Amino acid sequence: MKIGIVGLPQSGKMTLFETLTGNQRREGVPLSKAVPGSADILDARFDALVSMYDPAKEARARIDLMLLPKMERETIARGDIFRDIADVDAICHVVRAFDDESVYHVDGSVDPVRDMDMVNAELLLHDQIFVEKRVERLEKSLKKIKDETQQRELGLMHRMLTHLEGERPLRMMAMDTDDEALTRSYPLITRKEMVLALNIGEDDIGKAPMPEEVTARCNDGQMKAMQVSAKVESEIAMLDTEEEKREFMDDLGIGDMALETLTRLCLEALGLISFFTVGKDEVRQWLVRKNSPAPVAAGVIHSDLQRGFIRAEVMTYDELMAYGDEAALKKAGKMNLNGKEYIVEDGDILNIRFKV
Question: Which pLDDT tens digit goes with each residue over 13-62?
Fold first, then answer.
């Protein structure tokens, strides 16, 4: 899972990226270049399983993050940022909502709704221009040779164009499997899921609700939303121990770290769930598409497990915690053997039986 972080200058996107990944943009790397990073996914269930099994090795699922070039007229005109966005699975748009006279704003004032609208308009315009050009090429080609696939694609492009002209992102447009196949290779930005990260000041933590107009925009554009203080999160990240971090967070009224909230929203947006494998040798978290059958989840672990899948021994996280250990769970008849048709649920703990 790769998440691209975008935002206008001075929105706090770099501070948030560096806090989430621990990566700092190297000196000499221009702001017009994307910066890669990664971070462990924070999940309290994983921590509880590690405490229960005390494994020799532990492995969290990871999220790839990409700090995308700053959204200025120059990078927009060159198209650099759009090429980078096309390479990510979802977008985190950092929007400034904090007041600080020492940090300038390119438009002279802090206005989250205006900034949201500006960025979203640029993304819509990018897709609209691409679709218009594609329509021109298809119409020109169909005048020479009649092709059923191209004819179908032309109809899809016209539907997309109408949708975009209505100022609606393509992620809100219903598309079937054939439509997806026709457009899979196209750099359509607004098809991607988006999470809005409203960057608030320290004084607003735990006090100010998400502004109604921002919430309305998110609902209208099918976007997930969160509030974060990138500056405070960076201060928390510099503390030495988890106890110090938790105490600081409690004092400020912060429930979850930004990484926890961001990854949860991104997983929801992308339709991904977590499952686990456990034992004294290793506790590991894995990600799989929601509604995936057990062999597909097995394939996430290793292709041999999917190819030779026989059955999946399944425990649920909640039941394991409730009964205290595997022996008690098994005695209660809560450890189940499931075949190829079993649909993996979020929080399942799997032991795959296979033969190749």
Answer: 999 999 888 866 555 555 667 888 999 998 999 999 999 999 999 999 99
Strand order in the sheet with 309-316: 57-59, 282-289, 272-277, 348-354, 309-316, 336-338
pLDDT in tens, 256-309: 888 888 888 889 988 999 999 999 999 999 999 999 999 999 999 999 999 999
Residue 235's nearest CA partner among 227, 224, 244 is 244
Considering the domain boundaries, does residue 257 fall inside one?
yes
Q: Kindly state the tokens that stand for 245.
A: 């971090």
Which domain-ending residue is among 162, 190, 218? 190
Q: By residue range, what is the domain housing residue 319? A: 291-354
The token duo for 266 is: 């991104």
Whole-model pTM: value is: 0.86
Cα–chain-centroid distance for residue 344? 20
Pair (35, 149) in one structural domain: no
> How many domains is the chain built from?
3
Instruction: Provide the 10 A C-beta neighbour count for residue 123.
Output: 23
Find the farthest-apart pair of alpha carbons in the chain and give their distance in angstroms, rounded. 72
User: Are 259 and 330 contained in the same domain?
Assistant: no
Same domain, 231 and 308: no
**CA distances to 58, 88, 197, 230, 297 from 76, in Å:** 42, 17, 21, 25, 40
Q: Which two tokens stand for residue 192?
A: 């991607």
Side-chain half-sphere of 307: how many Cα atoms within 13 Å?
A: 4
Task: With beta carbons less than 8 A apart as the criterion, state whether 13 and 7 touch.
Answer: yes
Per-residue CA distances from 125 to 16, 117, 354 (Å): 27, 12, 50
For residues 92 and 214, membership in a common domain is answered with: yes
